[in-house]
TrEMBL record:
Signal peptide: 1-22
Keyword Repeat among record annotations: yes
Gene3D superfamilies in the cross-refs: Chitin binding domain (2.170.140.10)
Pfam families assigned to the protein according to its UniProt record, in alphabetical order: CBM_14
Name this protein carries in UniProt: Chitin-binding type-2 domain-containing protein
Disordered, as annotated region: 158-194
Species: Rhynchophorus ferrugineus (Red palm weevil)
């Protein structure tokens, strides 16, 4: 944890409460008032707030004062299953993979990694790629039949082609340094000088 974050957490613990809008105390990090809003929190300085939004898939962790995975934050109403609306399927232990992957049923670009087979974490493929539920990895959309049209209307055919096979950048013209043309000092043999 950064020093400034630690200082604000300390101030929040020992100051007399002086609540203001979204700030139960003048200084600190505070969860959103609505318990089911998991990905937003407030950073308060002198009673003035800034709303911070966690990156997609993360929630505010009240104990650490940062965004983290829902299973690490351990907040009521903000469990992995509630945030992602996805439950890891129960699998036969004889063929189980430690952290199996499953396609997001709503979005071809995303998938879930089930930590130890039971805690979902949402991950995504890079732009232009989709999750191949058979190969269990990201691939170009044209190679995954059930998601071949995922980017239609989102990206042009040319944009998809450029993502898959980026155009080679033209080399920049370089300036020849004048230093190379300067005469160099001759090396003096120290034995001759003595």
């Amino acid at each position: 944890m950064r020093t400034s974050q630690s200082l604000f957490l300390l101030l929040a613990l020992f100051e007399t409460p002086q609540p203001s809008e979204h700030c139960p105390r003048k200084h600190g990090y505070f969860a959103h008032e609505e318990r089911n809003i998991c990905d937003k929190f407030y950073y308060c300085v002198d009673g003035k707030f800034n709303m911070i939004i966690c990156p997609n898939g993360l929630v505010y962790n009240e104990h650490a004062g940062i965004c983290s995975w829902p299973d690490e934050a351990k907040r009521k109403g903000c469990t992995s299953e509630e945030v992602f609306q996805f439950e890891c399927p129960k699998v036969n232990e004889s063929i189980a993979v430690t952290h199996p992957r499953y396609a997001d049923p709503e979005d071809c670009q995303f998938f879930y990694v089930c930590i130890n087979g039971d805690t979902p974490r949402r991950n995504g493929c890079k732009l232009g790629q989709v999750f191949d539920d058979v190969a269990k990895r990201c691939d170009w959309s044209r190679n995954v039949p059930e998601c071949a049209d995922w980017y239609k209307g989102r990206l042009t055919d040319q944009q998809l082609k450029d993502l898959e096979d980026p155009p080679t950048p033209k080399p920049k013209a370089t300036k020849i340094s004048k230093r190379r043309n300067r005469p160099r000092a001759e090396r003096i043999d120290e034995d001759l000088v003595r």
